[in-house]
Amino acid sequence: MKNINVGMIGFGYMGKMHTMCYDNIKYYYNTDVNINMYAVSNTSKANFPIKFEKVYSDYQGLINDENVDVIDICVPNFLHKEVLIEAIKANKHIYCEKPLAVDIESAHEVMEAYKKYNFNKTSRITFEYRFVPAIMRAKQMIDEGKIGKIIHFNFKYYGSEFIDPNRPISWQSTKEKSGGGVLYALGTHAIDLIHYLIGDIDEVYADKRTHFKKRPLSGTDKIIDVGIEDILNIQLYSGEIMGTLLLSQVAAGSGIDLTFEIYGETGAIKFAHENPNVIYYFNNDDEKSPIGGLSGFKAIETTQKYGGAASFPPPRVNIAWTRYHIASIYDFIDAVCKDRKAYPDIEDGYKVQLVTDAIYRSAEEKKSIMVR
User: Fold this and answer.
1) How crowded is residue 349: how many other Cβ atoms within 10 Å of its Cβ?
2) Which helix (H) or strand (E) holds 232?
3) Pairing assessment for the beta strands 123-126 and 93-97 based on DSSP bridges
4) How far from the centroid of its chain's Cα atoms is residue 301's Cα?
5) Diameter of the chain by CA atoms?
6) Lowest mean pLDDT among 19-33, 217-231, 347-361
């Protein structure tokens, strides 16, 4: 049995999610890998739900611990760059929450270290929606030519996190610490899916808005200006393919309102996260008569049909958000054990960062911007 020691850097919301996934892989997959939650670095005096062998007050000590195999980075966005660079220098396997960094300059620094130190370990940036079986099936169908040459697409990701005007400003809603608003929180997921399903984005035209322009500062009586956007409308181009991306965190009633439509010369694919158990497929060659024949969008049931080593729960059981994270972490750990690449990796995260930078420049300059 192979043993993997994980070192968690940060133990907030996503730190808990990642830890839960590592701890539960043995139930979901048939694997001979023993994952040991070996160490944690956390600045707050947290009561951890599982027992770590070591608790570090600083991340450098954890990274330099020779017993740590995997560095899992769940600190706030503005700390990603420095932690990633140290983990790259130490040549550890890296699992990092998105985004790669808070701005393009920081992302460049990460990639400079990546090249300078000839990083050759397994890495993963957490874009967990790649591990929804319905989306994985969509990728297969596109690659198999089921919809023919892609013509255009529409993506939307709406949430309601900031619909309350009295929600206080925290690090997640501070430009310097988060990197951005809805583009970083939700849009990066959609951008990665566009890269995964359609191809690299090479040109953008964007318009952004901040609806609630002032909010209370957390822990004080002050009302201050909001420095991040909560709405973005984006026109995207991937070669000859044209598409749209609509983002909002002030869409009342929205939870994970992630949808996409991809239209090809011979068919189309649709996905709506309100029912992540199916992918909708239209085949233009289906019989259209009599009275409609067999034509129309068909719901292809994917549920938890991961196949391979996935053993629990049964494939017929409905899927939900936590399961994507478990699948992502299992795929990463399997890659670590087999010494292979695990996508989306650090380079994929950098490609997303190039697009977010172009989007912000487009919104500021009010013109189309090439991604480079």
Assistant:
1) 26
2) strand 231-238
3) parallel
4) 23
5) 71
6) 217-231
CA 280, 282, 283: angle at the middle one, nearest 5?
Answer: 145
Strand partners, 71: 7, 94
- Residue 261 CB burial class (10 angstroms; 0-12, 13-18, ≥19): middle
pLDDT band at 45 (very low <50, low <70, confident <90, very high): low
- Which amino acid belongs to residue 101? A
**Residue count of the chain:** 372
Q: Quick one: DSSP state of residue 29?
A: B
Q: Which domains does the chain have, with CATH numbers?
A: 2-126 (3.40.50.720), 130-341+352-365 (3.30.360.10)
- Residue 168 contacts residue 217 (beta carbons within 8 Å): yes
In terms of DSSP bridges, do strands 369-370 and 231-238 run parallel, antiparallel, or are they unpaired?
A: unpaired
Strands 150-158 and 257-264: antiparallel
Q: What is the pLDDT of residues 171-203, one digit of tens each?
A: 888 888 899 999 999 999 999 999 999 999 999
